[in-house]
Design brief:
This protein has one domain. It has 14 helices and five strands. The longest helix has 34 residues. The strands form two sheets. It has a three-stranded antiparallel β-sheet, with helices on one face.
Length: 365
C-alpha cells in the first residue's frame, strides 16, 4: 500500500508547448483544407477546435484524479478497447479498403488511437504490480501477449502503422521497468529474422507502399504519387517557404491527404526549412519536458506511464515527418497535435494529462 502526497502545481510547459504546436497545426490545417473549398477549410478548423475543447475538459478531469486510481481501471479499459477493435472488423466504417472507424450516430472514433493509451495504462499497471518478478520470463511473455492482441486486431483492419506504433510503447515501458535486456534483444532479433514471413500477410497496397519506398518512380501515378508530391512540396519550400496558404502543391490539389498524414509537407512548402525546424524543435522540447517528469518521479507506475507517452509521441513524430520527406514507407500515422482528426487529438491530450497527473501526484512508500 502507499500513501499519497501531492505536489502543488506542474510544469506549465506541458500545456504551453502542446498549445503552441496545436496553434501552428491549426494554421496549416486551414491552409491544407482551404484548397478543398473555403467552407471546408473553416469547417475543419472549427471541428479541430471543438475536439480541443473536449480534450481540455477531459484533461482537467483527469489531472484531478490520482493516476493510481485511474490505473485501477486499466484492465477494464483494455477489454473495452479490445471489444471495439473486434467490433470494427465486422461493422467498422470502411475507407480505401480498411475498416478503422466505429460510428454511433453523430459520434465517429478510431479505436486504434485509443488502443495506444490503453496499452500504456495496462502495461504500466501490469509491470508495476509485477516489478518483483520482472526477471521472470512469464512476466515478459504476458507483457508481449498484452501488446500482441492489440497488434493483431489492428493489423487485421488493416492498419499497419498503428499496429507498429504499439511496439515502441512496449519496449519503452519494458526498458523503464528494468526488464532484462536479453529478453528485449532476443525479441527484437526474433522479429527481424521472422520479418520476411510477414510479407505474405500484407495487403497488396501495403506491399506496393513498401516497394515504392525503395523506388517511388516505379509507380509515379499510383502508390508513389503521394510521396513524390510530398517531396516536391517540402523541397520547393526552400529556406523560408512560399508563404502561408501560398503553397502550389497544396493549393492546387497535387498533394493528397495533406490535412491528415501529410500535413508536414504543407509546413515544409509554406514555411520552408525555418518553419519545419521550428515545429521539430517544439516537439523536441515537449519530449524533453515529458522525460523530465519521468526522471523526477519517485513512483514506478508514474515512470512507466510517462515513458510510454514519450515513446508514443516521439515515434509518431519521427515516422510521420520521415514519411513525408520520403525517408520511411507510408504507414498512415498522424502528426500529433497537428494532423486533422479527433481520435488522435484527444488521445494525445489524454496522454499529456496523465503526464501532468504524474507530475502533480507523488507517492511515498
Amino acid at each position: 500500500m502507499y500513501n499519497i502526497s501531492y505536489k502543488r502545481g506542474f510544469d506549465p510547459f506541458l500545456i504551453i508547448l502542446p498549445l503552441l504546436i496545436f496553434g501552428i497545426g491549426l494554421l496549416f490545417l486551414y491552409s491544407a483544407s482551404r484548397g478543398m473549398g473555403e467552407i471546408k477549410g473553416i469547417n475543419f478548423m472549427f471541428r479541430q477546435v471543438a475536439w480541443l475543447a473536449v480534450s481540455i475538459v477531459m484533461l482537467v478531469v483527469i489531472i484531478n484524479i490520482d493516476f493510481r486510481r485511474i490505473l485501477d481501471w486499466s484492465y477494464l479499459f483494455y477489454v473495452l478497447i479490445a471489444l471495439a477493435l473486434i467490433l470494427i472488423l465486422f461493422i467498422g466504417g470502411s475507407r480505401m479498403g480498411a475498416r478503422r472507424w466505429l460510428s454511433f450516430g453523430w459520434l465517429t472514433f478510431q479505436p486504434s488511437e485509443f488502443a495506444k493509451l490503453a496499452m500504456i495504462l495496462t502495461l504500466s499497471y501490469f509491470l508495476g504490480n509485477n516489478r518483483h518478478s520482472i526477471r521472470d520470463i512469464r512476466t515478459f511473455l504476458a507483457a508481449l501477449g498484452i501488446t500482441g492482441l492489440f497488434c493483431l486486431l489492428i493489423f487485421k483492419e488493416p492498419d499497419l502503422g498503428s499496429a507498429i506504433a504499439l511496439l515502441p510503447i512496449l519496449f519503452a515501458i519494458l526498458l523503464c521497468s528494468e526488464t532484462p535486456m536479453r529478453f528485449i534483444i532476443g525479441t527484437i532479433l526474433a522479429g527481424l529474422i521472422a520479418s520476411p514471413l510477414f510479407w505474405n500477410f500484407l495487403k497488396d497496397y501495403q506491399k506496393r507502399r513498401l516497394l515504392v519506398f525503395m523506388n517511388p518512380n516505379m509507380d509515379p501515378l499510383g502508390a508513389g504519387y503521394t510521396v513524390i508530391q510530398s517531396k516536391i512540396a517540402i523541397g520547393s519550400g526552400g529556406l523560408f517557404g512560399k508563404g502561408w496558404t501560398s503553397g502550389t502543391q497544396n493549393q492546387l490539389n497535387f498533394l493528397p491527404e495533406r490535412h491528415t498524414d501529410f500535413i508536414f509537407s504543407v509546413v515544409g512548402e509554406e514555411w520552408g526549412f525555418a518553419g519545419s525546424f521550428l515545429v521539430i524543435l517544439l516537439f523536441c522540447l515537449l519530449i524533453i519536458r515529458i522525460l523530465s517528469v519521468a526522471s523526477r518521479s519517485n513512483d514506478i507506475y508514474g515512470r512507466l506511464i510517462v515513458s510510454g507517452v514519450a515513446a508514443m509521441i516521439s515515434f509518431q513524430v519521427i515516422v510521420n515527418i520521415a514519411m513525408a520527406a520520403g525517408f520511411m514507407p507510408v504507414v498512415g500515422l498522424p502528426l500529433p497535435l497537428i494532423s486533422y482528426g479527433g481520435s488522435s487529438l484527444i488521445t494525445t491530450w489524454l496522454s499529456l494529462a496523465l503526464v501532468i497527473n504524474v507530475d502533480m501526484h507523488r507517492s511515498v512508500f
